[in-house]
């Protein structure tokens, strides 16, 4: 027999004439629904999966800062940007953008101008389970994190890739401006084919603190390194559990010499690299069991000098 007044994660309310039943187990904020196939960017839309909005930027505009609002990006949603602009600017603090579906059904955001990008313009934003793809030569960045206001950003279980040829390059997957702290990049795929002007999966443009890059798959022709932070020093970094393939002879991780933190259990494939010293460049970090393969068909060798004492 049910207990009178028992707590449930399901919550129902009338929104724009529609009774919406939502799962509030993750957040007590409002839910909005996004679908380019059936959606309309107009008043009265967005609060129900039967009446979604059509674009991410419009959905962001429906959110309220710091309430934990969630935008559900429905399966097979597709957007593209052909102008010199952000395909969407996530400038409301504390929101979640969560893609639904898996594999080819995941939402896809196509960047069709060299400066098209998804801009993170507020604190505490989370993006999960979407695909971002370059559709033009030398697209600058999949995600752009702006100075100061992009702190506490989480990128989780997304795919960031080029258009499948060396003339549809995505130069950098995530471009992090200086003074962007406390970011978490976890469980993502960064993919490029060989050739073209590809620089990195993640680039830090300057100083940063408590950056965590965990358990990502980075397989590309990255000509600088997969993870680059050679301009400004980072503090308290954690780079752990990443599987990395880079351009022949290049390091998998390259950080400014006075960057501090832990680099742990990463595997790097860089044909021709010097295993002991060339796979990771990070003089002031602590290294734990990182391996590099520098010749096809061989097992990885431990990279870095062993501590003594």
- Sheet having the most strands: 10 strands, parallel
**Unreliable residue runs:** 1-8
Which oligomeric state applies?
Answer: single chain
| Cross-sheet strand order for the largest sheet | 3-4-7-10-13-16-20-24-27-30
Q: How many strands in all?
A: 32
Q: How many helical stretches? A: 1
Overall helicity = under 10%
**Helix/strand class:** mainly beta
Silhouette: globular
Approximately how much beta-strand content do the residues carry? Answer: 35-45%
Determine the N-to-C terminus distance: 66 Å
| pLDDT averaged residue by residue | 91
What is the alpha-carbon Rg in Å? 21 Å
Summary of the model, kept short:
The chain has 309 residues and is mostly beta strands. The chain is 2% helix and 39% strand.
